[in-house]
């Protein structure tokens, strides 16, 4: 397993102090399977930020609802509204475990 963390200048996220950054993280497993986390933006409508998480073909949206750290996640299947679930360390570990057990 290896991981790569990047601070990318393209499509930056602008913070209130004028600093622009976007962080991506890729975790690659022994068989070539990857988990990718990509910061999408701040001040998303109805939220304070969003990170997209891709596990193979599965795509999740992690949504920061409050500045104090209430995270939710949802998985889009279609254009219809999809349910959201609490996102915390236990949820993250379960998502990653399910992904690893699939190969």
Distance between the termini: 14 Å
Summing up helix and strand content along with how strands pair, one would put the structural category as: mainly beta
Q: pLDDT below 50 for ≥5 consecutive residues: which ranges? A: none
> For the CA atoms, what is the radius of gyration?
14 Å
Residue-averaged pLDDT, rounded? Answer: 84
Strand order of the largest sheet: 1-4-5-6-7-8-9
Beta fraction of the residues? 35-45%
Figure out the total of helices: 1
How many domains? The number is: 1
How would you characterize the overall build of this protein?
With 103 residues, the protein is mainly beta. The protein has one domain. The protein contains 1 helix and 9 strands. The protein has one helix spanning 89-101, and strands at residues 2-7, 13-14, 20-21, 23-28, 34-42, 49-55, 58-64, 71-75, 85-86. The strands form 2 sheets. The protein has a 7-stranded antiparallel β-sheet, covered by helices on one side. A hairpin with a 6-residue loop joins strand 7 (58-64) and strand 8 (71-75). The longest helix is centred in the last third of the chain and has 13 residues, at 89-101. The protein is globular and about 40 Å long. 7% of the residues are buried.
């Amino acid at each position: 397993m290896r991981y790569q963390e990047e601070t990318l200048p393209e499509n930056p996220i602008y913070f209130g102090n004028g600093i622009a950054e976007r962080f991506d993280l890729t975790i690659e497993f022994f068989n070539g399977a990857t988990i990718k986390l990509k910061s999408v933006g701040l001040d998303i409508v109805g939220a304070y930020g969003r990170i997209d998480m891709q596990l193979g073909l599965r795509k999740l949206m992690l949504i920061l609802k409050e500045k104090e750290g209430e995270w939710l996640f949802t998985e889009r299947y279609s254009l219809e509204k999809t349910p959201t679930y609490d996102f915390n360390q236990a949820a993250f570990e379960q998502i990653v475990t399910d992904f690893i057990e699939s190969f």
